[in-house]
Amino acid sequence: MKFVRPQPPCCPVSPVGRLYAVGMVKLEETPLPGVGVRHDFDGRFGKRVGVIRHRDGRREIFVSRRDDPDACAQNIVLSDEEAEAVADLLSGSTITRHVARLTQDIEGLAMDWVNVPGISPYAGRPLGDTMMRTRTGASIVAVMRDGQAIPAPGPEFPLHAGDTVVVVGTPGGVVSAAKLLSGEG
């Protein structure tokens, strides 16, 4: 498979790509007229890695040589479900690493994932009923339910048995929050 790489910006007939950074990786975004958008970057070990988002929704992962990014060495076409599974696998580990780095960088900050057990006095009640911040100094910043993340839930948000809440605060506050949700606090 051969990709058409745009000419330098001085050529007016070519689409112009854009460069942006995610973490320490510089991603290049290139419109592919009639096809979709290509996102790629130079990998650490001499390979160019990227994804083409086709207009019809397909995703295609490709690997090429850094010195000849148009010569595709390997490509894999993914269905919507497969692309979502790969994204979940990759983003989950990325998010976890970023959060771990963040908590290490901010002294005194702790974060934990706390399960809401069926015996919790707050299962089936609004989040505000916990008075979490007042009682523990910690905050619930997200709730994981049925594999979906609900960021920044408000005080009216109902907690369910089996939810996993993301609690942020001091180390002692996070421990107190876990005890409160389990009915021990």
Automatic annotation (TrEMBL):
Name under which the protein is recorded: K(+)/H(+) antiporter subunit KhtT
Ranges for the RCK C-terminal domain? Answer: 97-183
Native organism: Deinococcus carri
The residues that cross the membrane are none
| InterPro entries associated with the record | AAE_transporter, KhtT, KhtT-like_N, RCK_C, RCK_C_sf
Q: What is the lineage of its organism?
A: Bacteria, Thermotogati, Deinococcota, Deinococci, Deinococcales
